[in-house]
Amino acid sequence: MNKYSQEDLLEFEKILMAKRDARNVEIQDYSRQITELSENGKDENGIENSGYEAQFNYLFSHKERAMKNLRDIENALSRIKNNTYGICVVTNALISKQRLLAVPTTTKSIEGKQLLEKQKS
Hints:
This protein is mainly alpha-helical. The chain is built from four helices and no strands.
């Protein structure tokens, strides 16, 4: 089993840290919008306006998705520290650099993903 060089790992780490920073800003923004909506989404009688629930669900689902992505990023950063980053969990082979640059949080190579899909069908 091959592993990525320290230089490559630093490159991936920089990419992941930038994505982590962006997700944190995104999550804070969604939280702020949810708070504002909660405070301002009802009229003087305490009745929700017509778009309140739809807007709340939209913001909440996007915040949840960003939080999941943040967890994936943190897991990828842990794999870099543990020197297991870029190793497919299915085939135990090195994931291509091109795939990791496209999806830096992935844990599966294209081959590993295809094997799992075949097993499911």
